[in-house]
Amino acid sequence: MKHADVEARALKEAARAGEAAPNGERGESGGWAHAPERSNMLALRFIVGMALVCGRHVTRLLLPPIALYFLLFAPAQRRHIKRYLFRAIGPQAGWVDGFRLLYAFASTLLDRVYFLRGRMDLFKVSIEGNVSIESEIAQGRGAFLLGAHVGSFEALGACKQQTHQRNLRLAMLMYPDNAQRITAILNAIAVPELRPHVIALGRPHSMLELRDWLDGGGLGGMLADRTLPGSEDQPAHQRGNNIVLPFLGQPAVFNDGPFRLAALLRRKVFFMAGLYGGGARYDVRFDPLADFGEAVCSPAEREMRIRAAVEAYVARLEALCRTYPYNWFNFHDFWLEDAA
Predict the structure, then answer these.
(1) Residue 167, Cβ neighbours under 10 Å: how many?
(2) If 154 and its partner were Cys, which of 15, 54, 115, 279 is the partner (CB 3.0–4.6 Å)?
(3) Which string of DSSP letters, residue by residue, matches 107-148?
(4) Of the candidates 270, 139, 147, 163, which has an alpha carbon nearest to the alpha carbon of residue 215?
(5) Reduced to 3 states, what is the DSSP secondary structure of residue 150?
(6) DSSP characters for 221-232?
(7) DSSP code of residue 195
(8) Beta partners for 247?
(9) Residue 146, beta-bridge partner list
């Protein structure tokens, strides 16, 4: 009865969060940070409620028709998925591959509910490379964790529950105007110790808040596979520079802002990914990318190190996309082909 009361309270909080969450801002055309959400509040509440009441196995029965719906009735996203799969898998990629990608995406969204509820007993999670992260935490130094729209960020919470690092403090650095509805609902149902701490980028106090967080031994997580929105009057460390690099055989634009931020604050940078392996399997990986905590170098050398770090990040991301092709959830014009 006590467990049922907790879940009922979570459902009520989710409903209130859905009503209070503002709609995504409609910014300039094509801007991912202000793109309106393709979501239905009633459907979101229903799926979250079903996940809490009926459990994971039953709720997963909804995922195939949801994936098929978006494959058929989201032409822009279908076009971007097709382009990506041709590059990650090859020209033999077809509708089945597009369905598998959307099904994996829907699976990770559903699993976010259970990760945020602390239900690690439902999953088989393997963790690699977390020793270096634990060493930074033990010595009271913060670090940057740079990921991508690959797999599940919430799966990283397994590191807190499955290792001895119960004091792992992770803040997500993000632009909060995107995907506000589903984020508000999921935050409402999360248990307090697993509710993600967010440091909003593009705010006047962002840098001070981030510096204090890192000085306190916290980790700053950021998804670095999208160019950062902003204007020319923003500081360079927030806006960054766009760099064109080969990615899956085609030039793509990446932003070095996250790496400049790490260099400015003199922190280590790790690559992070919570890869979905199908069913209840997740592979969480951490890999060192760069160490900006060393002695201050010349501006030219710093630029070279930032460039090298971006190239290492892109190489790591490309390798993961080829190994786990159905974990790429960047459903926008990544290679800017629509504009061309």
Answers:
(1) 10
(2) 115
(3) HHHHHHHHHHTT-GGG-EEEEESHHHHHHHHHTT--EEEEE-
(4) 139
(5) strand
(6) EEE-SSPPP--T
(7) S
(8) 250
(9) 222, 271
> Going residue by residue through the chain (340 aa), what tens digit of pLDDT does each one get?
444 554 455 445 444 444 443 333 333 334 434 454 445 667 778 888 999 999 999 999 999 999 999 999 999 999 999 999 999 999 999 999 999 999 999 999 999 999 988 898 999 999 998 888 878 777 778 899 999 999 998 887 766 666 555 567 888 887 766 556 666 766 777 787 777 788 887 788 888 999 999 988 889 999 999 765 554 445 554 557 999 999 999 999 999 999 999 999 999 999 999 999 999 999 999 999 999 987 667 888 899 999 999 999 999 999 999 999 999 999 989 999 987 6
Q: Which of 297, 163, 271, 280 has the alpha carbon at shortest distance from 219? A: 271
Cα→Cα distances 177→41, 172, 187, 196, Å: 16, 14, 15, 16
Amino acid at 29: S
- Which amino acid is present at 79? R
Q: 267: which 2 tokens?
A: 């922190």
- Tokens matching residue 296: 């201050």
Collect all residues with Cβ–Cβ distance below 8 Å to 127 and sequence separation of at least 6.
158, 159, 162, 163, 284, 285
For residues 177 and 268, give the distance between their C-alpha atoms in angstroms, rounded to a whole number: 28
Structure tokens at 280: 């209840």
Contacts of residue 274, Cβ cutoff 8 Å, sequence gap at least 6: 147, 151, 152, 153, 154, 155, 156, 158, 282, 283, 284
Residue 97: burial class (beta carbons within 10 Å; 0-12, 13-18, 19+): buried
* 3-state SS class at 237: helix
What token pair was written down for 292? 């900006």
pTM passes above 0.85: no
Query: Cα(139)–Cα(132) distance, rounded to whole angstroms?
Result: 11
Angle ∠(76,35,248) on CA atoms, nearest 5: 55
Q: Which residue has the tokens 């520079």?
A: 241
CA angle 16/20/26 to nearest 5° reads 145
